[in-house]
Amino acid sequence: MNSENFSLSEKIVSSSYIRQGSQARRSHEQLIRHLLEQGKCPEEGWSESTVELFLNELAVMDSNNFLGNCGVGEREGRVASSLVARRHYRLIHGIGRSGDIAAIQPKAAGSSLLNKLTNSVALDILKLSGVRSVASCFVVPMATGMSLTLCFLTLRHRRPKARYIIWPRIDQKSCFKAMITAGFEPVVVENVLEGDELRTDLEAVERKIEELGADNVLCVHSTTSCFAPRVPDRLEELATMCAKYNIPHIVNNAYGVQSSKCMHLIQQGARVGRIDAFVQSLDKNFMVPVGGAIIAGFDEPFIQEISKMYPGRASASPSLDVLITLLTLGASGYKKLLSERKEIYSFLAQELKSLASAHGERLLHTPHNPISLAMSLDGLQAESDKAVTHLGSMLFTRQVSGARVIPLGKEQTISGHTFRGFMSHSEEYPCPYLNAASAVGITRDDVTLCIKRLDKCLKTLKKDGNAAKSSPPEYPEDGESNIL
């Protein structure tokens, strides 16, 4: 309804009522105008009616929704199911063009505007979360692993002689396979044990650079968010080292946006040295369906270069999901979620420490990990070799998802590389342990129920030694039900 239609409506319904309706409409439009003017996440979240009004306005700007449109091309935004059309708010054309995921589509002004606004709002949220000097970012419809691959492939054109990626070890398959898929040889640098924590071996990283030759190294591939007892890499020192040897630096920040400590590490690394790009998952940080990531960096031309490396158009679903979520939450709503997560982290640590003490175990001391915690399982290991893995299966069948039980001595071969002590980020970590994490969206009830069920499982295993010796039922390998 525009002003002319409202005026005509006054001939049908009382003008005072129409003016009231017009004012209500303008309140929605004012929110949309602020978004278009500023390109930032609104401070207060929008109502669902405002979000839906905005999305419907965008949809009517796409050619597939033009009245009387006659499409004779091979891609005309045709959808056989009306249910599918409604699921996507009739935004069918996707984002980008064949040569650039960030390009404008002539046939889809609404979808193109959606894409640009989503990237702008995502950039604002990254700044709000702690990386204030980030220059550019874009949402890509791939999860973290493939998004890292895209970064590595882009660097290939800048460093055609390079064969190796130096990678401080983290036992998570997708980030390792991201390097293999891009056609490079990962050079695994083992972590060093400091107390209970596994930390970056800076001397070993520098030795590898000198041994291989800086020109033969594509980049250093570091990690922030990770499972305890591993902690975020020493990003400032690695960034300084990369600047010294003129080597690119790509950071896997999978679920680090929710942690002020992880974001501070990235900000400081870029300030003192070199970070070329950092990649974060949409689902882990913003509670949307799996399938998207944000690639961000401090040099806008390089981030644009990465976006142009993406072949073909792309799905708009991840962009649509995260834009709807951030508009609904608002900046204040998202900051509240981050604050609650941090509070529950302290609650989880307290509850795990008490439970560990009651069962003769201990909470591992990992102060540099702001999201994940670990509890030793030495007592279970002493009872039976299978008791530790049996605990994992018991938790899973009792609907405790996300908890990872890490036995000693497991080996795993990935793309020809064998990892000893797989899942523990170390060839010889001193004890088996259980992981739990305080990720965005967790509640106190989640923690309370998890601790109650974990306590019951530990009591059952200790009471009935035969339970630990029986063959455990299958449960997801490598914590597939996990947040990573």
UniProtKB/TrEMBL annotation:
Q: Which domain of life is it from?
A: Eukaryota
Query: At which positions is substrate bound?
Result: R97, S98, Q105, R313
- The main enzyme category here is transferase
Residues that hold tRNA according to the record: R271, R398, K463
State the pathway, as annotated in the record. Answer: Aminoacyl-tRNA biosynthesis; selenocysteinyl-tRNA(Sec) biosynthesis; selenocysteinyl-tRNA(Sec) from L-seryl-tRNA(Sec) (archaeal/eukaryal route): step 2/2
Q: Which SUPFAM superfamilies match?
A: PLP-dependent transferases (SSF53383)
Residues the record annotates as the site (May act as a substrate filter by repelling compounds with a negatively charged alpha-carboxylate) are: E74
Which EC numbers characterise this protein's activity in its record? 2.9.1.2
Q: Which residues bind pyridoxal 5'-phosphate?
A: R75
NCBIfam families attached to this UniProt entry: selenium_SpcS
What this chain does, per the entry, is described as: Converts O-phosphoseryl-tRNA(Sec) to selenocysteinyl-tRNA(Sec) required for selenoprotein biosynthesis.
Recorded protein name is O-phosphoseryl-tRNA(Sec) selenium transferase
Provenance organism: Sparus aurata
Q: Which gene encodes it?
A: SEPSECS
